[in-house]
Amino acid sequence: MSSIAFIGLGNMGAPMAQNLIKAGHALTVFDLVPATVRTLTEAGARAAGSAAEAVAGAEIVITMLPASKHVEGLYLGEDLLARIEPPTLVIDCSTIAPDSARKVGAAAQARGLDMVDAPVSGGTGGAVAGTLTFIVGGSDQALARARPVLEQMGRNIFHAGPSGAGQVAKICNNMLLGILMAGTSEALALGVANGLDPKVLSDIIAKSSGRNWATELYNPWPEVMPDTPASKGYAGGFGTDLMLKDLGLAAEAALSARAATPLGELARNLYALHSQGGSGGLDFSSIVRLYTQKPK
C-alpha cells in the first residue's frame, strides 16, 4: 500500500479519499474546511496543517480542487511542486482548463515528476461507490503508475492522450451533456404543454431516435424517475453552477483552438440565465424550469 497525500476534500474529494483509506493506503489529508478534515481523520487519515506538510514524504499526491486558479495557485503560486521529491507521482483530478493542466504538467516534468491530469465523471454517487470514470492525460509511464490507485476509486480508466488531453475529453463530454439536458428539457416541456404525460413521452423517446442519457437515466421532469434529483427538488447531483463552469471551460478551449461550438455557447447562455435566476445551487437538470416557468 502507498503513502498518499490527498488535498481537496469537497463533495467529490472526500468520498474518493475514503475509498483509498478503505483500500488500506496511508492517507495524509489537507483541506481549508476543518470539518471535512475531521471526517477523514475519524476514518483513519492523518491531518496536515498545510498542503506542504501533507506532501512531505508522500509517494503519491492527489488533488481535487474547484478550478484552474486553485490548481495553478497551489502547484505554481505556492510552488508546491518544489516541495514534492521525485519519484513521487502527482495526480490532479480537478476539472480545469487544458492549458492550465499542460502548464502545471510541464512544470512537474521539469521537476522530474510524473504527473497526470485525471478529471472524473460519475458524480458524487460514483465517488461514494468507487465507480468513477477517470479520463487521463499524461505519459504511458505515468498512467501505468497511477492506474492501481485510480482503480480503487473508479471503474473505468481512459487514456485520452498527453498532458491536458484528459481535460479536453472531459469538457467535450460535459459540453455535450449540457446540450443534451437542455434539449431534453425543451422537448419534454413542449410535449407537456401540448397535453402529453411526461413519463409516457420519456418512454417513447427512450425507445426512439431521440434517446439519450437524460431521458433514460437522469430524467429532468419531476416524478418520472424516483431516484433522480428532479424527483427530490433538484437537490444534490451535479450543480447548475458546476455545469456552467464546465461550459465556460469548453468555450475557452474553443477560443484557444479557434473551433466553432455554437450549441455549446447556446447551452452556456441558457445555464447562465438559469443560474442568475437563483438556481445555481440546484442540480443542472433543473434547467427544465426555464421552459416551464409561467410569465408574470
Describe this structure in words.
The structure is a single chain. The chain is of the alpha/beta class and 296 residues long. It has two domains: 160 residues, NAD(P)-binding Rossmann-like Domain (Rossmann fold, 3-Layer(aba) Sandwich); 125 residues, N-(1-d-carboxylethyl)-l-norvaline Dehydrogenase, domain 2 (Orthogonal Bundle), CATH 1.10.1040. It is 50% helix and 14% strand. It has 13 helices and nine strands. The protein has a six-stranded parallel beta sheet with strand order 3-2-1-4-5-6, sandwiched between helices. It has a three-stranded mixed beta sheet with strand order 7-8-9. Helix 4 links the parallel strand 4 and strand 5. It is globular, with a radius of gyration of 20 Å. The mean pLDDT is 96.
Roughly what is the average pLDDT, rounded to an integer?
96
CATH top level of the largest domain? Alpha Beta
- The name of the CATH architecture of the largest domain is 3-Layer(aba) Sandwich
Could you say how many structural domains there are in total? 2
Helix content: 40-55%
Following the backbone from N to C, one meets helices and strands in this order, namely EHEHEHEHEHEEHEHEHHHHHH
Number of E strands:
9
The global form is globular
Q: Which sequence of strands runs across the widest sheet? A: 3-2-1-4-5-6
The major beta sheet can be summarized as:
6 strands, parallel
Radius of gyration: 20 Å
CATH superfamily heading of the largest domain = NAD(P)-binding Rossmann-like Domain
State the CATH topology of the largest domain: Rossmann fold
Which structural class matches the secondary elements?
alpha/beta
Seen as an oligomer or otherwise, the chain set is single chain
Number of helices: 13
Query: What amount of the residues lies in strands?
Result: 5-15%
Q: What is the rounded distance between the termini?
A: 61 Å
Give unreliable regions as ranges. none
EC number: 1.1.1.31
Family: Belongs to the HIBADH-related family.
Enzyme class: oxidoreductase
Organism: Bordetella ansorpii
